[in-house]
Write a structure and sequence with these properties.
By secondary structure, the protein is of the alpha+beta class. Helices cover 39% and strands 12% of the residues. The N and C termini lie far apart (126 Å).
């Protein structure tokens, strides 16, 4: 009997290789994306559902979440102790909740507070200082103004930003003894009108002469001449696009407020002074002119101190 050999069966298993394990990092990235989109649509909703003052109030809340008005940098105590979450809240029930207003809400009361006069004056001072710097930069870069930069004097006075255009012996602003502007003086005023129109403040224009009497016409003195020159400057500013309502006062002071007191006939005494007025100066010009004594009226029309403070480089 023959011996039966066992059958050998070889089983081949084909291994299928899969990609490596990716982990859950994509979930974190997706969650960040969803959170960002939710925040984005929340911002869009807030912008659509609120007015401009309310948006400013919300912005201020996140800068200073304290329920008490003030300028202290100390963190307000919250539910988690000093520096923790504030107990003040923003209502998110819809546009009606935000715009309704609630006098018992300290956050709402804080945002409706009117800025103090000191804060208003500081903002106005910063705005005028920014305008002065912008003008100085424009004078140094402008091809139209660069040749005349030594005739443009800028300074900040108690009345506001003063821009003085002064005469030179070889480059007068007006024809001799008249209110007819020289072409380059017109170019200066047209250029200045664009900058003056950028701020809401009103302006005061003042004409000045030296002590020389140019006119032989009876009854026409340097007082009339200085006033006519101030008005000629006003008309040119209006031609440049400035709103007529911005002019609060036009004054001619003859030689009563000299630039160079030591030399009354110095050409620099012949000048036009444009003052971008502060709110207080504007109120004084519009409402209290009749109550000012003559020296105070002259000082106000001259734009404060008659001496130069800052000369444009």
């Amino acid at each position: 009997m023959s011996e039966t050999k066992p059958t050998v069966i070889i089983r081949r298993v084909k291994k299928v290789k899969h990609g490596g394990h990716h982990g859950g990092s994509w979930k974190v990235a997706y969650a960040d994306f969803v959170t960002a989109m939710m925040a984005f649509f929340l911002v869009l909703w807030l912008m659509a559902a609120t007015s401009k003052p309310e948006r400013a109030a919300i912005s201020e809340y996140f800068r200073n979440p304290s329920p008490l008005a003030g300028s202290s940098a100390t963190p307000a105590p919250g539910m988690a102790g000093p520096g923790g979450a504030s107990t003040s809240m923003i209502k998110l029930g819809g546009a009606t909740d935000i715009s309704r207003g609630n006098s018992s809400d300290p956050f709402q009361n804080q945002q409706q507070a009117v800025p103090t006069p000191v804060q208003e004056r500081e903002r106005e001072k910063q705005r005028l200082e920014a305008l002065r710097q912008e003008l100085q930069e424009a004078i140094s870069k402008s091809q139209a103004l660069e040749p005349f930069k030594d005739q443009l004097l800028l300074d900040i006075t108690p009345e506001g930003l003063r821009i003085q255009i002064v005469d030179q012996q070889n480059r007068p602003m007006f024809d001799l003894g008249s209110a007819r502007l020289m072409p380059y003086t017109r170019a200066i005023l047209l250029e200045l009108s664009h900058f003056i129109s950028q701020v809401p403040n009103r302006i005061s224009l003042t004409g000045h002469t030296d002590t020389t009497a140019y006119s032989t016409q009876l009854g026409y003195s340097n007082w009339e001449l200085s006033a006519d020159r101030a008005n000629a400057a006003r008309r040119t500013l209006l031609e440049g696009g400035m709103d007529e309502a911005k002019v609060a006062r036009v004054v001619g002071l003859s030689s009563s407020v000299l630039f160079d007191k030591t030399n009354p006939q110095n050409p620099i005494n012949r000048r036009i002074s444009i003052v971008v007025m502060t709110r207080d100066a504007e109120a004084a010009a519009l409402n209290e002119t009749d109550t000012l004594p003559l020296p105070a009226l002259a000082a106000a029309a001259a734009g404060g101190n008659a001496d130069p403070v800052t000369v444009a480089d």
